[in-house]
Amino acid sequence: MRPLKIHELKSVYEMMSLKGKVALVTGGAGGIGRSCAAGLAEVGANIVLMDIPQKENLLKENCKAISDRYGTKAIYVMGDVSDEASVKNAYDEIVKELGTVDVIFSNAGIAYNEDNPHTLSLEDWQKMVDINLTGVFLVDRIGANLMKSHGHGGSIINTASMSGHIINRMPRDKMDKHMVAYAATKAGVVHLTKSIAINYVDYNIRCNSISPGLILSGLHDHMDMSELEKLCEHVPMKRFATLNEIIGIVVYLATDLSSYVTGSDFIIDGGFTIW
Ligand SMILES: NC(=O)c1ccc[n+]([C@@H]2O[C@H](COP(=O)([O-])OP(=O)(O)OC[C@H]3O[C@@H](n4cnc5c(N)ncnc54)[C@H](O)[C@@H]3O)[C@@H](O)[C@H]2O)c1
Q: Looking at residue 167, what DSSP letter applies?
């Protein structure tokens, strides 16, 4: 064993390639899902987008845009990540159409406008846990077991949130409106990631999470824009991220560029959690 010389190093571009690999992206009709799916396709992956049946038109549109722009295969499956049968069915479809899965971006999630412990209904708490936490667990473990049974490694990337590390600061007039279910489920995703990482490390399956800050996406469709702009005052960079600014970390984690990285979480928040 000795350290490598410069001429022995791999090419960064080769390490970044996903040519011939298959990547599943859940929440593939949404903002972060579609932008990261595009990034994964650009480095060569064939793409499977998964989202709920109500989003079929967007899924179709995103698949066409990806295959037109990058020339890779892009198909979609409809289903609910919180439903085990639905997730199993999605992987069955993937195996039937593309043979296997190498990269899993377990990204589907929901957020509420009102999510505080004073008033949140138990039903809404449960729904958030089912989708944001159980959904990630199901997509990860069924996918990891598939990779294991196919005898190859892979990379799993879970979408947590900076809200899994901190409680997003609300304006002074809303001091009793800080989020509860979203923050709890996303903290769960950060820790779930570490457990998946250690349980599958011997199978060459890596698992990491990303923790975005404020990324302008479909998640904010039902929210008040002036309230959101107020939130940006807490961001040192004083702005939302665009959907371009989340792609790099997902491509990095999906590829051999990050081959020694597992069980880690990456915060992409314009500095929000510095304060
Ligand atoms: N945008 C942000 O500022 C931000 C910040 C931190 C974390 N996140 C997380 O990023 C992920 C992606 O969100 P986004 O910002 O792209 O929002 P988005 O609303 O544009 O996308 C989320 C997608 O998940 C899908 N989805 C919801 N429930 C589902 C289910 N049961 N089964 C399958 N798909 C389902 C939605 O239909 C939607 O297309 C989410 O997990 C979200 O919590 C977003």
A: P
